[in-house]
Amino acid sequence: NDFEPVHFFTKKEKIDWMVQLVEVDEERLKTLPLDLVDMYEDLFHFTKTKKIKFYPRAVGKPSDLIRVSSKSNQSKGKSGNISVSGRFKRGIARPGNVLQIPGNTRSLKHSAVFPVKLPAFFIKLTTDVGDNIFEPFSGSGTTIMAAEQLGRNCFALELSPAFCDLAIKRWEQFTGGKAVRQEV
Q1: Selected residue with higher pLDDT from 165 and 67
Q2: What is the DSSP string of the chain?
Q3: What does R_g of the chain's alpha carbons equal in angstroms?
Q4: What angle do CA 158, 45, 110 make, to 5 degrees?
Q5: Would you say residue 34 lies in a domain?
Q6: Closest by CA position to 167, among listed 131, 184, 175
């Protein structure tokens, strides 16, 4: 994979986006708001090396429908269409590339407070217990809490003193511990 985040940011405006026509009947159209709510968030994973840890089974779900791979059990049938026939076994199904994680229901003094489950998913997917995680945009401290919960070390930065205070308050409520300021 030759993807490097810097290429995405420098070439972002040159990407041709595919647009699909969505038809909505007139009665349904009357009930829609004037603006639609974004139902997704783009996430980026930055790394210093191309050789990353990757554990999809750590975030997979138990399933009875894991396809047994063999020459006679291909995912495409003779017609070229996807086939659902063949042998299956019990195991861990790898997750898809769209996560369904409900947002926070509590109002906090930050515009983008993510649920702890979101960074926890990626921490489990790409790190081992005891690994270090760097969070350059700590905000309300969600990644710090996920790392704490999963036995990882999180080194976080945040420019806003108000957000730092919010992150400390959330961490103390989350862990029951008391934050201690250390001079460096």
Answers
A1: 165
A2: ----HHHHHHHGGGPPPP-------HHHHHHS-SSPPP---------SSSS----GGGS-EEEEEEEPPBTTB-SB-TTSSBP--S-EEEEEEPP-SS-------S--SSTT---THHHHHHHHHH--TT-EEEES--TTSHHHHHHHHHT-EEEE--S-HHHHHHHHHHHHHHHS--------
A3: 22
A4: 35
A5: no
A6: 175
Predicted confidence at residue 149, as pLDDT, reads 95
Burial of 173 (0-12, 13-18, 19+ CB in 10 A): exposed
Q: What is the pLDDT of residue 95?
A: 83
Q: Can you give the CATH number for the domain in which 149 is found? A: 3.40.50.150
Phi, psi for residue 30 in degrees, rounded to 5: -65, -25
Query: Is 87 inside a domain boundary?
Result: no
Q: Which domain holds residue 164?
A: 99-184
Q: What are phi and psi of 58, to 5 degrees?
A: -70, -20
Residue 13 neighbours by CB under 8 Å, 6+ apart: none
Domain count, the chain: 1
Give dist(CA 168, CA 108) in Å, integer.
13
Whether residue 4 lies inside any domain: the answer is no
Which of the two residues, 116 and 10, has the higher pLDDT score? 116
